[in-house]
Amino acid sequence: MTTQALGQTDTRTLGQSARSEIAAIFAVALIGLGIVFVAGHAQASALHDAAHDVRHATGFPCH
Ligand SMILES: [Zn+2]
User: Fold this and answer.
1) Could you list the residue range(s) of the whole structural domain that residue 54 is in?
2) Ligand 1 centroid vs 62 CA: distance in angstroms?
3) Residue 2 — very low, low, confident or very high, per pLDDT cuts 50/70/90?
4) Would 6 be classed as within a structural domain?
5) Looking at the predicted structure, is the pLDDT value of residue 49 above 70?
6) Distance (Å, rounded) from C-alpha 14 to C-alpha 20?
7) CA of 36 to the centre of ligand 1 (A)
8) In a domain, 4, yes or no
9) DSSP for 25-61?
10) What is the pTM of this model?
11) How far is the CA of 53 from the centre of ligand 1 (A)?
12) For residue 40, how far is its CA from the centre of ligand 1 (angstroms)?
């Protein structure tokens, strides 16, 4: 199964690979910008509560 997946990747042309990488870069940039703009326009208390829960869930030192 893994060998088949690698074989399919090897048969790609360089142009297809570069296009998929560019598409991935744009997708990640769009998600990142979305997070920044959503965070910038959301109420600070809601963001604090969400970040606070994640800090405790991941065991990050908080208070
Ligand atoms: Zn806390």
Assistant:
1) 20-63
2) 5
3) low
4) no
5) yes
6) 10
7) 23
8) no
9) HHHHHHHHHHHHHHHHHS-HHHHHHHHHHHHHHTT--
10) 0.42
11) 7
12) 22
- pLDDT digit string, tens, across residues 10-42: 666 678 888 899 999 999 999 998 887 777 777
CA of 23 to the centre of ligand 1 (A): 38
- Ligand 1 center to 39 CA (angstroms): 20
Cα of 46 vs centre of ligand 1, distance in Å, is 14
Tokens of 11: 């048969």
59 domain residue, yes or no:
yes
Does residue 27 fall inside a structural domain? yes
52 with 62: CB under 8 angstroms? yes
Domain count, the chain: 1
